[in-house]
């Protein structure tokens, strides 16, 4: 039984794995049940702590520790299986979000992910609104973006809507934005020229998680243009990994520096650059950064060959990302808000003329994912698991 592998005999002189078990005791002296925080410092976790007795009953391992005073712990076997590291019995992948991602190209135009304003606002739909937010965030997770229709065309309603998903993230652009093409900020977003597909704030160590836009006003005629472009960078990644695996590997490996320097008093440049495609320790793609406008001087720590390889790979990225199969163009009208997972879906726009007023905000990636996770727990069947590996 795996438990026996984790508990060495009390006679063992080696530092043992007992310390791991002792450290994970969740009795009320070791762990605060409400705040779910550890209460014991490592000075109080002896490296050679030994077991006086151990037995299994009712799906739990009960341990009496040879400590003064005597300490007792109970560990659910399901937890031990998940947490076991010698040997590992569960993959961390089993413990992570398993809900599938749906990558898309231009065909998403036929049926774009959409929820209604009413379904997520408590004043409209009462207690069901929390469930509405969960299905909204599930769509953002699955597709990397989601429209909200029927939104009142005011900044107040838009800001309230955004706060249903998480805290608004304040940056050098402010918190909640309300802007026109007046170049009030030193960024092309504040102009009326067209912008190729990009992710925002690639120059942050932690790029903005969600980007939310609401076009409050852009009458056509007399105005023209201003269509929004969305491109799924995970779709681009799939295409590259299938058709140009070397390019995909290059873009997943070489770290690209980005900067934001157009605003007085701001000079953003992350201390650690990251590649266009970032993968987790299980090799799964979890973040794309692509912003050709904000790209800094390439090549730090690269070989001359790597500089050349990067250009070849990046041109292929651009070629796929600007293909008819990848681009989804949509004209946003007042009343429709778009929520974009900025770690995945790129946005851009066509040049425009006329009076165009936009509002919106950023929400941090950790924050909206936390909101989604906690709503998932709230509505999942069965009792809450106080022995979760990560809540
Ligand atoms: Fe942008
Ligand atoms: Zn304890």
Automatic annotation (TrEMBL):
The entry's keywords: Carnitine biosynthesis, Dioxygenase, Iron, Metal-binding, Oxidoreductase
Co-factor requirement: L-ascorbate; Fe(2+)
Gene Ontology cellular component annotations, sorted alphabetically: mitochondrion
Domain named TauD/TfdA-like: residues: 134-362
Coiled-coil regions, chain positions: none
Gene3D superfamilies the record matches: 3.30.2020.30, Clavaminate synthase-like
Assigned protein family: Belongs to the gamma-BBH/TMLD family.
Protein name: TauD/TfdA-like domain-containing protein
Organism of provenance: Apiotrichum porosum
